[in-house]
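Data card: per-record layout.
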Amino acid sequence: MSGHVDQPGREAGGRDAAEGLTRRRALQVLAAGAAGAAALSAAACRDGSESGPRSAEDAGALPGATSGGNPRAAGTPTDPDLVSPVVWWDLLLTEDELATLAAICDVIIPEDEHSPGAAALGAHAFIDEWVSAPYDGNRNDLTLVRGGLVWLDIESAERFGGRFTDLTLDQKHAICDDICWVENATPEYRVAARFFDRVRDLTSTAFWTTAEGMADLGFVGNRPMPRFDGPPPEVLERLGLA
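The structure for this 242-residue chain is written out next.
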């Protein structure tokens, strides 16, 4: 995940725009987003024409760009400086939307004895940056995620009389169990299940690309070793090489 260093102003009025939406309208918004995401997911971020300058020389005129130094870390959208990351677009989700998103991220990957929950590691902030990006696939994800967050609050109010963030963990699970798998979702929940599927993918990407997430997987990466004695005997035996 990027460092979320520079975060220009958020879009105002997102919650106000969501208020008054019926469950039917929320499903319509979700359906539009799901259709667009399915059609364009493979094309997300592929168009370099919107991504800013490609050369270090061009990047020098941009805020946060690296002039001179390492030309492989120019600090541009197409050649990011990962040491001093910059977000190149306004973040669009409102505080209310982020709170609901954080709650569902923690349902997807909760805290346990091995690692923090997804929200504690900033999964909802990663998703905010992703859906705010100015590319067609990401814009469709924004529609899908925003519609899904509205749907969650409407469904929560109808079932349990409160917003999703106010529900007990069992109540949150009761809703998410109905939308956690597209193939198994009943027709009335199938569109909402596409929203959950997208958020689950983005949450997993965010979580398991952090140091804590990689440690949770047991991934150690490339580490220097004083010597290597070869694979252990049980591995060689399993491969028929013993």
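Known properties of this structure: The two ends are 42 Å apart (CA to CA). Residues 1-19, 37-69 have pLDDT under 50 and may be disordered.

See the next section for split statistics.
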